[in-house]
Amino acid sequence: MAEFRPPPPAPRGASRPSFRAGLVVFRNRHYRSLWLSSLFSFTGMQMQMVARALLAWHLTGSFGAVGLISLSFGLPMLLFSLVGGSLADRFEKRNLTLASQSATGLLALINALMLVTDTITIGWLFVLGLGGGTAMALGMPARMPLMVYVVGPQHLMAAMAMSNAAMNFTRLFGPALAGVMVGAWNLESVYFFQAGLYGLACLTLLTVPTGLGRQAPGFGQPARQGMWREIGDGLRYVARDARLRTLNLMMFTVAFLVMPYVMLLAGFVQEDLGQGEREYGFLQSVSGAGALLASLVIASLTEFDRKALLQWVSGLVGGAGLVALALGSQVFGFAGALAATLVLGLSLTAYQTINSTLTMEASRPEFYGRVMSINMLSFSAMPLMAWPLGQLADVIGARAMFTAQGLFVAAFMVLMALFQPGHIFGRLQPRAQVYASPAPGQGEERPGPAIGA
Predict the structure, then answer these.
(1) For the chain, which residues make up each domain, given as ranges?
(2) 20-213+237-436 classified as CATH 3.30.2350.10
(3) Which of 42, 130, 169, 422 falls 20 to 30 Å from 284 in CA-CA distance?
């Protein structure tokens, strides 16, 4: 296996967009297998999100109940993501990912069988959500570092953008397919299909060898500390790094206040827009179209040195899109909601992809798993906030809630521009400097992007 080396500094003027720079990762056969496995699992995940929200709504008819089921998925992610990050830095990443996907497929099969036997209740749906969230929390921190080890850090942004493109491609047809299957057959058909997709994802992942990344700096030494000590080291590493602190703050704020809108769309479409399951699935697919477009654009910006500014603009547009979802749907009905969800899908995907890329670029390889597990806590924030926001929507209405969320996020982006101008408007350091930066306790804190570099 080729030795893992930091790439040379990107040349000046290398920020011209090039989609071919994104496609280069597919020359690596292990990356192709990871990407195909992700395609299967993401399709199942997108279909399950629709089925879970519809099932919770059918069982209760309450926004709060839909949010409660989202809470069941987010709570274990909050509790166990840091554990998953420590496991990812200690053990074989491919096997951790394989175990996570196998468990998720098994839970989908159990859900389908409970629907067939008419034993599913809102309580059991909550328990199954706890299991699914735990599987994701323990397995997901290993997936992104695995992709970096396969393609090398010089192709980090392209690898992550193409991975997100796979996920967002499934958003084009996954939610719509779930809605069609529910309308034509029943909810259990969606869960059976999802279990089969996760089986295919596991079989594809088995073609990826173990041991990838053992030549990376800091990865080859076996862990010699306790798990909780390693978790603490990861938290201190992020806390001492100004750039990582800023990136996590920006991700958590948007995850708390914008992204939970996805969890509440099922009730909003039926209660406020007067539409059914198929329209809900179509709305999700339109959002996926915007997300796919964003992923492909981001993949062409591998050497773009103003990524932080692009993330900030995406956050502003996301806040505006949420306000447009509330007001546009009131004026233009379902067509207004379609336009707003297209904007939300594009802007929020760009925001999330850039944030994850910048986080990985700013991290040392031996901390990849733990750093990404902290970043993943933002994914727990989304379903966790869906429950209180669902309760609020039951009281004041979804439109008023969406408007307040969008305005708050726009205000937050303005504050970030005022108090963190070096991060927002600065140019990125060459990646070689990032990988050469000292670990905590071995040197001074790494500076943020240099203004006007």
Answers:
(1) 20-213+237-436
(2) no
(3) 130
